[in-house]
UniProtKB/TrEMBL annotation:
SUPFAM superfamilies: Arginase/deacetylase (SSF52768). It holds the Pfam family Hist_deacetyl. InterPro entries: HDACs, His_deacetylse_dom, His_deacetylse_dom_sf, Ureohydrolase_dom_sf. This is Histone deacetylase domain-containing protein. GO terms for cellular component: cytoplasm; histone deacetylase complex. Residues 90-316 form the Histone deacetylase domain. One of its GO terms (molecular function) is histone deacetylase activity. One of its GO terms (biological process) is epigenetic regulation of gene expression. It comes from Aphanomyces invadans.
């Protein structure tokens, strides 16, 4: 693997800049954050793969059984996207004119990355894409998500690389539960879904410990920080990955668990995001069947100022670097009270461990 480029990231931001002209205020905030994050990634020296606007949409949205099932919904989004005022994909998933092409680019960006990893062009990578996807179901959008980028990528891997990819693991540390991803795979023993999220956040009544099928939900209490998240990685996520023995690991990478995010109530620092990335990369490398195959896919994160530092910390960890991009607020995050693992947080982890059958046996 030493001969490979250690990391790449797929960016659709510059394309979004061309087509997102008249947008709702929230979309403009997301676009601004995306711009800053792309700049931070480039500063680390990571290799950039661009995804061009003229890539046909059918390339991104065809070829898997999941997208075939999605076809009526996809066609509906395509039609509404032509309207001057756009349309509504579902709960908190309004979109503007031209959104279909943007959503296809988001899916295509993730597929381009997994192809690059599978071809050994790179050892791992980060898909910096918008819109996010982990709330989207096959037939309806939700929570700023139109198409479920990670779910489509998992199905794509299983279908396009059947001799190499028998099982896929998805780890989601976005502050909100990845309900769409769970629903897509809870009856599929080829896919393990692990969600680390804030309890009782969006979507309400979603992400309980008693997850269905091949799901491990870790609903951490509000106020959880470095101690809780690192303990979650060490005691639940990494052991579950080793037990499942996936051939590929996908990460739904949301930075809205940061202590500055307006849509979450957690206390995670950029440093902690970097630590989690290192743990996940080490797990991918240590699991023989996985052979280091790892792809991060961008999800949420709504602090215009702080998201770039969180993203840069992840990229640095994947590159084996540290401290290239200085976080000017790291001292404040470290100084926040109760950053260590608290008893009520530990109790949640103990309950998860006791209920997760994967952690009680070697593998399914």
């Amino acid at each position: 693997m030493d001969a490979l480029s250690p990391i790449t990231f797929v960016s659709t931001f510059h394309n979004l800049n061309q087509v997102m002209v008249e947008r709702q205020p929230l979309e403009r905030i997301i676009l601004f954050t995306q711009s800053s994050l792309a700049a931070a990634f480039e500063f680390t020296g990571a290799n950039v793969i661009g995804v061009n606007c003229d890539v046909p949409s059918d390339i991104a949205m065809s070829g898997t059984s999941w997208t075939t099932y999605m076809r009526p919904y996809v066609e509906s989004i395509q039609e509404k996207s032509l309207l001057p005022n756009g349309g509504d994909a579902g709960d908190w998933a309004q979109f503007s004119q031209g959104a279909y092409e943007i959503a296809c680019l988001s899916v295509g960006g993730v597929l381009a990355l997994v192809d690059a990893v599978m071809s050994r062009q790179v050892s791992c990578g980060y898909a910096l894409v918008r819109p996010p996807g982990h709330h989207a179901l096959p037939d309806i959008g939700m929570g700023f998500c139109i198409f479920n980028n990670v779910a489509i990528a998992a199905y794509y891997l299983l279908q396009e690389y059947p001799s190499k990819i028998r099982k896929v693991a998805i780890v989601d540390y976005d502050v909100h539960h990845g309900n769409g991803t769970q629903a897509s795979f809870e009856a599929d023993d080829r896919v393990l879904f692990i969600s680390v999220h804030q309890d009782n956040n969006y979507p309400l009544n979603s992400g309980r410990i008693e997850g269905e099928g091949y799901t491990i939900n870790i609903p951490l209490p509000a106020g959880s920080g470095t101690g809780a998240y690192n303990s979650t990685m060490d005691r639940v996520v990494v052991p579950a990955l080793h037990a499942f023995e996936p051939d590929f690991i996908l990460i739904s990478s949301g930075f809205d668990a940061s202590y500055m995010d307006p849509l979450g109530n957690m206390m995670v620092s950029s440093e902690c995001f970097g630590q989690m990335a290192r743990a996940l990369k080490a797990a991918a490398s240590a699991i023989p069947s996985c052979n280091g195959r790892l792809a991060f896919c961008h999800e949420g994160g709504y602090s215009e100022f702080y998201v770039p530092f969180c993203g840069a910390a992840v990229i640095e960890s994947l590159l084996g670097m540290e401290g290239t991009v200085k976080d000017p607020l790291l001292y404040e995050a470290r100084a926040r009270g109760n950053q260590s693992l608290q008893p009520h947080q530990d109790a949640v982890l103990e309950q998860v461990i006791a209920s997760a059958k994967l952690l009680q046996q070697k593998k399914f």
